[in-house]
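Internal ticket - ligand job 396, coenzyme A:
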Amino acid sequence: MAVETVRVKNIGLRGVTVADTRISFIDGEKGVLIYRGYRIEELAEKSSFLETAWLLLNDRLPDRQQLESFSRQIERSVELPDYIYECLTKLPKDSAPMDVLQAAVPLLAMSDPELADESRDANLRKSIRLIAWVPVVVTSWHRIRNGLGPVPSDDSLSYAGNFLWQLQGKRPDPEIARDLDICLILHADHTFNASTFACREVVSTRAHIYAGAAAGVGALSGSLHGGANARVMKMLARLEPEKDIAGWVKREIDEGRRIMGMGHAVYKTMDPRAAILREMSRRLGAKLGDKKWYDLSIQVERAALEEFEKRGKSSIKPNCDFYSASVYHMMGIPDDLMTPLFACSRIAGWCAHMIEEKFAEAQEKPALYRPESEYVGHYCGNMGCSYQPLEARKNV
Ligand SMILES: CC(C)(COP(=O)(O)OP(=O)(O)OC[C@H]1O[C@@H](n2cnc3c(N)ncnc32)[C@H](O)[C@@H]1OP(=O)(O)O)[C@@H](O)C(=O)NCCC(=O)NCCS
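stdout (structure tokens):
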């Protein structure tokens, strides 16, 4: 079948449907997010991160035995191979955690005994190892850079509880561990966002899923994507002593800067995850007896929405990063680990999408992504420009 050329360019693929998927669905007008048929609100209330990860990978909810087996497989895989831990100890201590994670993913590939096995089952097992390893890289790196030894994982804790335990070295408050588990559910997938698309694009070349996951980490690190949560926290810290929040917001927008954690490429109304996180931020502030960050977030949200309204941009609303910042901060997560924590959750969605892409589970057959571009550079005809020897060239 001849492929018709469609000219849609320089808009970051907004509104362009590039593939079918069975994994997640967003209704940006109504603020709906669905994973494999289930609404995010219901999963946040009733599910656990590992159950949600299984759902994303397997297209249905697990039964008890499947979930227990999945949890055991994750627990068995959490130990980092020695040489990777060794490598981490050699890195400059001021390395950004997202750079460390992006570097660690291909190192993990090298220790995967099934790397060359491209069967679906092997890719599922590789996904389990990635879901187990990513948080351990993040917590190990944080402890190494602070001169602290590793904390062995504790099988009695949830995935989120174990993250807090291995990061902080103290027993997590069960309510806080549950809240973090909910955060991980909320961030686990989000259709064809930039990092997921990067993962899918890489594996469409038949590269292994570690290559795709490394690309996903790189894409997630940017401030317009997963990097926004840490930037929101920076903004809140800066605004703590500020008396005129509305004036600050107006100046930022007037000067062409973006209010981090606001706006979304797909949602034109409130991001449903932000609504859950806003309530979590309020609840956590009340529990910990410090509502400062929640109150400040509310003030910034109000001021920004008013300002956007005045400028005819009323569809810009808080996204998931806006309230996850204060939530993570109150949980004791350092600012520069907020985006790596996002990766600890999104790794589940990335793996589900990479498997779907590799095995064409939502389309007729696998297809290599290969868009067109329009050349707008120098052109001297099909024979090319006349090449001048180096001595004859003088650039001004
Ligand atoms: C996420 C984001 C890239 C989506 O943007 P988008 O809907 O595709 O739209 P664009 O980037 O084309 O922006 C459209 C307009 O809205 C403005 N805008 C969008 N988000 C804005 C924000 N957070 N603050 C101020 N202005 C914003 C843009 O400046 C642009 O204005 P212009 O038309 O006058 O040039 C954008 O909202 C953003 O940069 N948000 C801040 C970063 C963030 O929170 N990222 C996490 C996303 S989950």
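Auto-summary: The chain has a mean pLDDT of 96. Residues 14, 224-225, 228, 253, 258-265, 313, 316, 319-321 surround coenzyme A (CB under 6 Å).
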